[in-house]
Design goal:
By secondary structure, the protein is of the alpha/beta class. The protein has a single domain, classed as Peptidase C15, pyroglutamyl peptidase I-like (Aminopeptidase, 3-Layer(aba) Sandwich). Helix content is 30%, strand content 21%. It has a 7-stranded mixed sheet with strand order 2-3-1-4-9-5-8, sandwiched between helices. Strands 6-7 form a two-stranded antiparallel ribbon. Helix 2 runs parallel beside helix 4 (142-154) and helix 3 packs across helix 6 (186-202). The protein is globular and about 40 Å long. The termini are far apart.
Length: 215
C-alpha cells in the first residue's frame, strides 16, 4: 500500500479560508487502488512551513508527496513544473516575515523539476471537464519555498513529489477587488486533486505533448 502525503496551507493575508486546505482536508484517509492518503496542514510562514513539511515527510515516509497551495487569480488547477531557489515576498507571511532575494537553501541548485507526471495529471483532470494545466512558475512566496525545500530534501530518493496550485473559491473571488476574478468550486478542486493523485500513483513515464508557455 502506497502512502500519499497531501498538504494544504492555513489561510493567509487576512483571509478566512484557504482553498488548498479546504480541499485536501476532505481527502484525509481516502484510499484507492493500492494507496492511502494522509493529509497535513502547513503554516503560511517562511521556514516554519518547510520544517513542518519535511517533518511530515520523515515521519510518514510517503511514496508520493504533493503540496497544494492557493493561486488567487489563476483560472485552473496549476500543476507546477519547477521550484526555484529564492524567497522574494511581495507581502508579509503570517509571522510578519518578508524575505527578499534570499536563497531557500544556501549554495543549493538554482532549481528543481518536479518528479510528478505533470502533463498526464493535467490531461486527466481536463478529461473530467475540470480546468487544469502545467504551470512554469510557482511564484516566490511560501508555496515555492516549500516546493523547493521538498524537492531538495527528497533528491535522489525516488519519491514522486511536487506542487499543485488551486484557484480561489467563488466566495473569495466575489470579494476580490479586481473583477471579474476566476474561481473554481470546492467540489471541482477536490475532484481534480483526486484525479491528480490517482494518475501520480499509476503513471510512470509522463505524457509527451505540448504544454509549454510563450510568456
Amino acid at each position: 500500500m502506497k502512502t500519499v502525503l497531501l498538504t494544504g496551507f492555513e489561510p493567509f493575508g487576512g483571509a478566512a479560508i484557504n482553498p488548498s486546505w479546504e480541499a485536501v482536508r476532505l481527502l484525509d484517509g481516502w484510499s484507492g487502488d493500492g494507496f492511502k492518503v494522509e493529509v497535513r496542514m502547513l503554516p503560511c510562514v517562511f521556514g516554519a512551513a518547510a520544517e513542518a513539511l519535511l517533518g511530515f515527510v520523515d515521519a510518514l515516509r510517503p511514496d508520493i508527496a504533493i503540496a497544494v497551495g492557493q493561486a488567487g487569480g489563476r483560472p485552473e488547477i496549476s500543476i507546477e513544473r519547477i521550484a526555484i531557489n529564492v524567497d522574494d515576498a511581495r507581502f508579509l507571511d503570517n509571522a510578519g516575515r518578508q524575505p527578499i532575494d534570499v536563497p531557500i537553501v544556501a549554495d543549493g541548485p538554482a532549481a528543481y523539476f518536479t518528479t510528478l507526471p505533470i502533463k498526464a495529471m493535467a490531461a486527466a483532470i481536463r478529461e473530467q471537464g475540470i480546468r487544469a494545466g502545467v504551470s512554469q512558475t510557482a511564484g516566490t512566496f511560501v508555496c515555492n519555498h516549500v516546493f523547493y525545500a521538498l524537492m531538495h530534501h527528497l533528491r535522489g530518493q525516488g519519491v514522486k513529489a511536487g506542487f499543485i496550485h488551486v484557484p480561489f473559491l467563488p466566495e473569495q473571488a466575489a470579494a476580490y477587488p479586481v473583477q471579474p476574478t476566476p474561481s473554481m468550486t470546492l467540489e471541482e478542486i477536490v475532484a481534480g486533486l483526486r484525479v491528480a493523485v490517482e494518475v501520480a500513483v499509476a503513471t510512470g513515464a509522463d505524457l509527451v505533448q505540448a504544454g509549454g508557455a510563450t510568456h
